Amino acid sequence: MQTGLVTFRLSSRPARVLGLALALLLAACDSTPDAAKPDGPHPALWEITDSAGAVEGWLFGTIHALPDGAKWQSPRLTETLGDADMLVVEVADLGNGEDLSKLFEQMAFDRREGPVIERIDPALRGEFEELLVKAKVRRSYFDPMESWAAALALAQVAQTNKAENGADRVLLAAFDQREVVELEGARAQLAIFDTLPQTEQRDLLNAVIEEAREYGDKGDTLANAWLGGDTDLLIELTRRGILADPELAQVLLYDRNRSWAAQIENLLSASERPLIAVGAGHLLGERGLPALLESRGYTVSRLE
Question: Whole-prediction pTM value?
Answer without folding.
Answer: 0.85
